[in-house]
Amino acid sequence: MDQGIKIKPTPITAGENVSIEYQGLLNQAGANEIYLHTGFGMNNDWDKIQDIKMEKSNNGWQANIEVNTDKRFYFCFHDNAGNWDNNNGKNWAFEVHNGKQYSNN
């Protein structure tokens, strides 16, 4: 788990449901609520921005999101007190594959 973040599955393919587990800074600080702040885009230009309330689990916090685009998946986290964990201003980003299979024939 890198920086308290776990993503399943990886690599991410368009059309999949993705699970995000979070045990990062906000969890360690004892936040009562944590939100996954997400968007999709290119060159750190986000669209389809949404906040998803994460569920408390034995492993920290967990949320699921359907990735219905092949644009890059961006995300960070915030709590209900206005504190953010944004990877030191870099956010987190994962490439999303379109799922097409290509043949050399």
Topology:
Blueprint: E1 5-8, E2 12-13, E3 17-22, H1 25-28, E4 34-42, E5 45-53, E6 55-57, E7 60-66, E8 72-79, E9 84-85, E10 92-94, E11 96-97
Parallel strand pairs: 2-11
Antiparallel strand pairs: 1-3, 3-7, 4-5, 4-8, 6-7, 8-9, 8-10
Relevant terms:
105 residues; mainly beta; 5-stranded antiparallel sheet; 4-stranded antiparallel sheet; 1 helix
Give a verbal description of the structure.
The protein is mainly beta and 105 residues long. The chain has a single domain (5-97), classed as Macroglobulin (MG2) domain (Immunoglobulin-like). Helix content is 4%, strand content 52%. It contains one helix and eleven strands. The chain has one helix at 25-28; strands at 5-8, 12-13, 17-22, 34-42, 45-53, 55-57, 60-66, 72-79, 84-85, 92-94, 96-97. The strands form three sheets. Strands 4, 5, 8, 9 and 10 form a five-stranded antiparallel sheet that branches. It has a four-stranded antiparallel sheet with strand order 1-3-7-6, with no helix packed on it. It is globular, with a radius of gyration of 14 Å.
Q: What coarse outline follows from CA principal-axis ratios?
A: globular
Tell me the helix content: under 10%
**Beta-strand percentage?**
over 45%
Low-confidence stretches: none
Main sheet characteristics: 5 strands, antiparallel
Which structural class best describes the helix and strand composition? mainly beta
Report the radius of gyration as a whole number of Å.
14 Å
CATH topology: Immunoglobulin-like
CATH level-four homologous superfamily name = Macroglobulin (MG2) domain
Count the domains: 1
CATH architecture: Sandwich
Report the top-level CATH class: Mainly Beta
Q: What average pLDDT do the residues reach? A: 91
Number of strands: 11
What is the H/E order?
A: EEEHEEEEEEEE
**Helix segment tally:** 1
